[in-house]
Amino acid sequence: MKVVRTVADVALVVSRTKISGKKVAFVPTMGSIHQGHLSLVEIAKKQADLVVASIFVNPLQFTSSADFELYPRSEDADAKALAKAGVDLLFLPTVDEIYPDGNFEITQTAGQIGKVYEGEARPGHFDGMLTVVSRLFDIVQPDYAVFGAKDAQQLFLIRQMVKGQNPLGVRDPIEIIEGPTIRDSKGLALSSRNNRLSKSQLGLALTLSEALAEASLAAKRGGGAPGAYFSASSVFTLAPEAKLDYLALVNPASFEPIEEGFTGQALMIVAATVGDVRLIDNGLITF
Ligand code: AMP
Q: pLDDT per residue over 242-285, tens digit each?
């Protein structure tokens, strides 16, 4: 695996690859690599000849500077894990490489769906996230980019951005690929933030996936959306130390709340805080 830190070095490797007719797949991350990230690398390897991964903790997408400072960083271990998983090129840019001359201008806005759920809890988060993804896409010029289903609202907004940037096929289309959420043996969705949970908090963190499982069972029993919602919220009532932020059923095609009588697959999204760690999860539920 080649490790580079500059835009010029990425461009060199990618252009050589593309000239020879090969395809490039990209997996952007903020590091603290776990099996969730590595599963995206696996998908990328199946799609393309050159797999590029990046690690960049993007200051623009953090609402509080404390959260940015606390975000775990483990460059050496991350590089080892990504190399083992088969990444060809690892891009480790400095803040200045991504935002030259201290220009932290927001170039992408997430619109209405960027202001609800995660966007409401973290104002500006999605504008910052889209701005860095767009900048990374411009640098890496991938044919494919792989993102996790774990961050469903993020994935929805990235798809929306890519579609919007390519209305007439002006820009090279980037195919966005979704990788499934990877969980531990108990069902907890893997996340870099889990490292900050104590053993007892790890138990409480299971409330999110348990709520989703209960909702799914209620839907199977024919309880419809009200039954699914009630079952999921009851799990939180029984575990008040997991502080529920939102629980909602949205249409995956629009991210709008599902309407009465909805049939098909809805996405149940959930966010809760355990200790001082904010956790999110989601799952598809069939009605
Ligand atoms: P992050 O480093 O948290 O910004 O995540 C980088 C990428 O990994 C994003 O596309 C996430 O959606 C994805 N990801 C994070 N956790 C998981 C997981 N448990 N399963 C699958 N993908 C994940």
A: 999 999 999 999 999 999 999 999 999 999 999 999 999 999 99
CATH number where 256 lies: 3.30.1300.10
| 189 in contact with ligand 1, CB cutoff 6 A | yes
**17 and 121 assigned to the same domain:** yes
Q: Are residues 70 and 153 in the same domain?
A: yes
The better pLDDT of the pair 218, 72 is held by 218
What are φ and ψ of residue 183, in 5° steps? Answer: -120, 160
Instruction: Give yes or no: residues 172 and 196 share one domain.
Output: no
From the list 239, 242, 266, the residue with the least C-alpha distance to 254 is 266
By residue range, what is the domain housing residue 214? Answer: 192-286
Q: From the candidates 29, 33, 37, 287, give the one annotated as an active-site residue.
A: 37
Q: Tell me, what's the pLDDT at 165?
A: 75
Q: Is 152 helix (H, G, I), strand (E, B) or coil?
A: helix
**Quick one: pLDDT band at residue 168, thresholds 50, 70, 90?**
low
Question: Is residue 204 a contact partner of residue 239, using CB atoms and an 8 Å limit?
Answer: yes
Which range (62-71, 112-121, 122-131, 269-278) has the least confidence?
Answer: 62-71
Provide the token pair at 118: 């995660």
Distance between CA atoms of residues 249 and 236, nearest Å: 16
153 close to ligand 1 (CB < 6 Angstrom): no
**Closest protein CA for atom 5 of ligand 1:** 29
